[in-house]
């Protein structure tokens, strides 16, 4: 107990109970208890520090000018031979698992090669879509709720298929432009640089040619016209 705390306790002891209550309300209960009885946590921390100092052996005890400074470590202790070569915050000696599809150490992702390697999935998706269509036709009248879920799944599969076809068509257009530029450079002619808008225009031309060849162009244009007509009829907000 320090001198200030002892004087404070003597002054409080000389005051009447009413004045003590007023002083307690003015200082607050926490500060009043601290002034009267001291800080038990500080005493506990000091006691633990003294116990730690007593437990230290003469071999590993190093003098420090300030208790808050880091402790010195003996250089006689050998360093581990394991090193973390991956530069990650992992435990030394243990490798962290990684996914080769998204890891730079396994090379760059090639979308064209990926499509070639997993091209067999197109046939599986087609069979799955046919199975869903048959099931949809069977339960369309008996179970409308299940039919709605099946219809939603079929539309999602068709939309993903359309997206894959558009990506493949765009890749074909870019490949054609690249081959044309290679031929021009072999002939000593300056290559042409095509904008994204031009790539999209050529992609649409290729799409129309494909639809015309399959006899689906007329149906596609009618559906497109209906969509534009519905958009024009929307009321302005």
TrEMBL record:
It is found in: Nucleus, Nucleolus. One of its GO terms (biological process) is maturation of SSU-rRNA from tricistronic rRNA transcript (SSU-rRNA, 5.8S rRNA, LSU-rRNA). The lineage of its organism: Eukaryota, Metazoa, Ecdysozoa, Nematoda, Chromadorea. Transmembrane segments: none annotated. Its main location: nucleus. PANTHER family: RIBOSOMAL RNA PROCESSING PROTEIN 36 HOMOLOG (PTHR21738). It comes from Steinernema glaseri. Residues 36-50, 58-74, 219-237 have a biased composition (Basic and acidic residues). GO terms for cellular component: 90S preribosome; nucleolus. Belongs to the RRP36 family. Residues 31-74, 215-237 are annotated as: Disordered. This is rRNA biogenesis protein RRP36. Coiled coil: none annotated. Associates with 90S and pre-40S pre-ribosomal particles. It holds the Pfam family RRP36. Component of the 90S pre-ribosome involved in the maturation of rRNAs. Required for early cleavages of the pre-RNAs in the 40S ribosomal subunit maturation pathway. InterPro entries: RRP36 (IPR009292). Keywords: Nucleus, Ribonucleoprotein, Ribosome biogenesis, rRNA processing.
